[in-house]
Every structure is written in C-alpha cells, then in structure tokens.
Write a structure and sequence with these properties.
The structure is a single chain. The protein has 203 residues and is an alpha/beta fold. The protein has one domain: 3-Layer(aba) Sandwich (Rossmann fold), CATH 3.40.50. Helices cover 30% and strands 28% of the residues. It is built from six helices and ten strands. The radius of gyration is 17 Å and the shape is globular.
C-alpha cells in the first residue's frame, strides 16, 4: 500500500536518510523504531511533503504520491497543532468538509472518545485530549494509510486501550499503518513487523 523507495535526504550536505526502502501492506502495522535523531521524523516529513528528498520515491497503491493522493493518508503527529479558539466539534466538521466520503460526525466522536470535549476550545485541551482529537482528525477521511508518530504519549489508560481497539479494527479492514514509536507496549500490542532505523539507515 505504502512504498518508500531508495529515499535519500540531506541537510546542509549531511546525509540524514540513506537509501531507505520500506513497504507497508494493506492491513499491516509496521513499527519504525530508533534513537532520537535517527531520521524517523524526517521520513514522516517527506511523506507529508514538508521535506523534499535528494532522491527516491514515495508510492501509494503502486503510484507516485502526488498532491491529490495525500488525502488518502492520515497523519497523527507527535505534537498536534490546532487553530486556537475553535471548538472541538467545529474542528471535526471542518475536517469532514475536506473529504468526499468522510466518517460521520458521530463516528469521529466515537473514535476519539470526544463526547465530553465537543464544546471545549482547542487551546483548552490537555495533552491527552489533544491526542484524542488528533486521532479522530487523522481518520476523518477514511485513509488508506495512517502515519502515527508516538500516538499514545499523554493518553490515559482508558483512551490508550480504546485507541488500540479502534486501530486494530481499522487495520482488520485494510488500513496500513506506519507507527513511529519508542513504546514497547505499542510495538507489542499493534505491530506486525518492527523496522530499526539507525543514523539514517534501515538495519
């Protein structure tokens, strides 16, 4: 479903990623692990179009990832940033409007356990609440692929278990997941395969 082919990235003439090759199939969770600075977030930034690689390609369903196809990828970033002074329910409606066949409002509320947060404004949310909203928004468009960067950091046990359950259900329905994590629990509960990244190289 998602293919990373011969990906190389340089910053200030220093190799950050070198010949990264990684494929994630539909219905598979791949955990990408490595020390801070190994290049994990750079891979996410390339997929998101924030960083432009020196060489290599990103494929989605066998086709080069273009601007229009990026709507098929959901991003759950480690540090979620939202517009201030916007209610949670307004954020859900806004993200629904971006897609042709989004999840319903009620489904998104259920995904993120957002029932008690709908009237809160984004700048009032705790770290765990921001993660809950980020998960719902990342799934709004029924993506083919989810990129989840340290997804359960800051979540309480109830939400963490709910997240595991909902993600497993989506994977069973064909979602491909690239999981960026330091958490042993996340790897043990979710991952079908673990890939180690060290100094910009897949081990």
């Amino acid at each position: 479903m998602l293919g990373i082919i011969n990906l190389c990235v340089e910053f200030k003439r220093k190799n950050v990623l070198r010949d990264i090759n990684l494929e994630i199939a539909s219905g598979e969770v791949v955990a990408l692990c490595g020390a801070n600075g190994a290049g994990k977030s750079t891979i996410v930034s390339v997929i998101a179009g924030i960083v432009h690689p020196l060489s290599g390609r990103i494929l989605l369903a066998g086709k080069p990832l273009g601007r229009k196809m990026k709507s098929e990828i959901g991003f759950m970033f480690q540090h979620a940033e939202f517009m201030d002074n916007v209610k949670v329910k307004e954020m859900l409606c806004l993200f629904q409007s971006f897609y042709r066949s989004p999840y319903s409002f009620d489904e998104l509320v259920r995904l993120g356990l957002l029932q008690d947060m709908l009237l809160k404004k984004t700048h009032e949310l705790s770290g765990g609440e921001r993660k809950r909203l980020s998960f719902a928004l990342s799934m709004a468009g029924r993506p083919l692929v989810l990129i989840a960067d340290e997804p359960t950091a800051g979540m309480d046990e109830e939400m963490k278990n709910h997240f595991y359950q909902q993600l497993k259900l989506a994977v069973d329905e064909g979602l491909a997941v690239l999981l960026i994590t330091h958490s042993r629990e996340e790897r043990e509960v979710l991952a079908h395969r673990i890939v180690l990244l060290k100094e910009g190289v897949v081990q």
